[in-house]
Amino acid sequence: MKNVLWASLLAASAAMIAGCHGGESAATPGTAQTMQARVVESQEQQVPVGLRSTGTVHARETAVVSAQVMGRIQQVMVREGDSVRAGQTLVVLDDAALHASVEQAQAGVKAAQNAQIAAQTNAALAASTLNRYKQLESEKSVSPQEMDEVSRRAEAAAAGVEAVRAQTDAARAQESGARTMMSYTRLVAPFAGVVTARMADPGTMAAPGVPLLQVDQAGALQLDATVDESAIGAIHKGMKVQVAIDGGSSMNLAGTVAEIVPAADPSSHSFLVKIDLPSSSQTRAGMYGTAEFANGARQAILIPRSAVVARGSLNCVYVLDGQGIAQLRYITLGAAQGNLVEVLSGVSAGEKLVDVPSDRDLAGKRIEVQP
Predict the structure, then answer these.
(1) Nearest alpha carbon to residue 168 among 99, 93, 114, 230
(2) Helix (H) or strand (E) holding 36
(3) Overall pTM surpassing 0.70 (yes/no)
(4) Which of 205, 226, 266, 284 is least buried, going by the fewest C-beta atoms within 10 A?
């Protein structure tokens, strides 16, 4: 009985071994299906090392318009998004009280001018009287006391003219000040730009220093990015920077470092770097952006983007072995470099890959190189 059992086990083992050998021979390169495809090669190259920093797009100049005098707002002549020119009236305040001050100052100037005319007339009379007395004195027809009195009156009249002239100058200065104060009731645009904020409406009481409008200067914009103090040494004025703007449609712009604020923020230990952006109709103040500063180079393995196959959230490529058989291999991708993409793991330099595999299942297929 034992001999029969051992014979059965040996027969089963022989059948399994024969089956395994038969499976291997079916997958040999000689029997693999052949398909044509383009083939590319992974390459090891130097790629720039980028230092990334985030920031917000701003106008190069921004002005907050506020009143310089107390007054009730009569008109706000613009709204958010309106374009304005330099010197254009934006807000009008009630000027009744200041207008009365101007009229009062004008009356003071007129009174001072009349007083000056009277003083000049009196001084001219005193001077002519003095000249006559001098002639009489030469003829010994007046006493020394009378001559002294006439001389003193002429001197007092001349001094009176100077005093009234000073009063006239003061009245004119007061009028000029009143007119200047009244000019503050019309708030104007400091430069050509766009109104980006409106914080007051007619009827509101305006006070000195309280913001009423915000105006961004027209023209090119800047990205204000923060850079850690450990990396600020690699950045210099005039440096070219790649800037990616996140908006409705992502934009890549070539910026230039315009200014590095020399003092670091003590709380974050970072520096503010201002980057000039080229003019673009799609760029708006307030957008979020990422700046990438060049900071040396390193070795990396690059493959064409067209060789990458997406399988759900995973990326893979078809790698050819020594017999030209395609094998599916999952990879980890890094940053893109133009039409190439960096491979962090899964592919070595010099390996051959199937280019543009599309939706074809090439695993286990022999690949014939397509010209």
Answers:
(1) 114
(2) strand 34-41
(3) no
(4) 266
Q: Please tell me the distance from the alpha carbon of residue 217 to that of residue 358, in angstroms, as a whole number.
A: 50
Give the closest residue to 352 by CA, choosing from 336, 335, 369: 369
Q: What is the pLDDT of residue 285?
A: 84
- Cα–Cα distance, 5 to 1 (Å, whole number): 6
Q: Angle formed by the axes of helices 144-183 and 96-138, to 10°?
A: 160
pLDDT in tens, 255-294: 999 999 999 888 888 999 999 998 877 888 888 888 988 8
Alpha carbons 342 and 346: distance in angstroms, whole number:
11
Can you tell me the distance from the alpha carbon of 344 to that of 332, in angstroms, rounded to the nearest whole number?
Answer: 5
Which residue in 243, 182, 215 sits closest to 50, CA to CA? 243
The pair of structure tokens assigned to 23 is 């499976």
Structure tokens at 367: 């690949």
Give the strand pairing for 251-260 and 240-246: antiparallel
Rounded-to-integer distance, Cα 293 and Cα 197, Å: 32
Contact 237/258 with Cβ under 8 angstroms?
A: yes
3-state secondary structure of 326: strand
Q: Is the confidence at residue 36, as pLDDT, over 60?
A: yes
Residues 6+ apart with CB under 8 A from 247: 282, 283, 284, 287
DSSP string for residues in 204-221: PEE-BT-EEEEEEESS-E
The CB-side HSE value for 191 (13 A sphere, CA atoms) comes to: 12
The confidence band for 305, taking pLDDT boundaries of 50, 70 and 90, is very high
Angle 11-17-22 from CA coordinates, rounded to 5°: 125
User: Could you give the 3-state DSSP secondary structure of residue 86?
Assistant: coil
**81 φψ region: left (φ > 0), alpha (ψ -120 to 50), beta (else):** left
pLDDT, tens only, 177-204: 888 888 888 999 999 999 989 999 999 9
Q: How far apart are CA 259 and CA 241, in angstroms?
A: 13
